[in-house]
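Researcher: We're reviewing a set of sequences before deciding which ones to prioritize for further study. For each one, I'd like a predicted 3D structure that I can look through quickly. This is UDP-glucose 4-epimerase. If possible, include the structure in token form so it fits the rest of the review sheet.
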Amino acid sequence: MRYLVTGGAGFVGSHVVLALLDAGHEVDVLDNFSTGHRGAVPAAAKVHTVDLIDYQDTVDVVAGQKWDGVLHFAALSLVGASMADPFYYLRQNYLTSLNLVQACALHGVKKFVFSSTAALFGGPERADPIPETALIQPGSPYGESKFMIERALHWADSLYGLKSACLRYFNAAGADPQGRAGEDHGPETHLIPLTIDAALGRRPALKLFGTDYPTRDGSCIRDYIHVADLADAHIRVLDQIEERSVVYNLGNGHGYSNLEVIQSVARVSGLTVPWEPAARRLGDPAVLVADSTTLRKDTGWQPQWGELDRIVETAFRWREKHPNGYGD
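Model: Here's the predicted structure for UDP-glucose 4-epimerase, in token form for your review sheet.
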């Protein structure tokens, strides 16, 4: 098969590219490299340096090849930044994705896998874990932009027959178990790499935002899912959209607290993690865990890297070896 992966130079997208290549498929990557890294793209993947905001350039790539499917990861993804500049986030994420969806619908693409977000579920009455049937109430322009894209895909199916899978998840983490790719954001905002860098002395003491939540140790609980397991899920759903579109929540099945992340990094690395308590951040809920029961039942997917120490171990090995990320 031949697949086009947008955002294939980013964290999750690059791991999906590796998984597709490992499975024997041909892969093209479309990326504007605004946040992605050329070093994250395997040599076996053909690269199209294109910004999806340009509709004609997008059409040229989509129409220039018969694709067995398109997997879409290209997006701005910082919740806080979307609150600070909401219209930019809404415009960029929605219009770039709309261009891609339209090009696919009009030029013969039959399958579309969308990397969505569980940040769609922003209401205070959210269940634990969160099922697909939970009330959609995005808590940020970032989450809203992802839901707008899901709605565009609904109409692309209804009117043009473009079948899609929308995967909603929280915190991608870890690194390729073979050490070929890892996490490199600028600036870094994810807890596990920040904790690792604090342990390695590459940054000041970690700030733990909130230690008085109604959880087992007072810190927030989050759903960390290994990026290799995410890649596996994105590929598995391609078989589910032969005849119908699907929406799945995707999660590890077990939430881990911020303090447990610190303890895991200390165990895995053998180092002390300097940290200090800080005030809660506005809008941070106590628990966020997604329910992946339906995905598991339909596809047979099971996380292979679900234990926190295994997630952290792959992240630590990659980050220790690449102190400057792909700049190395």
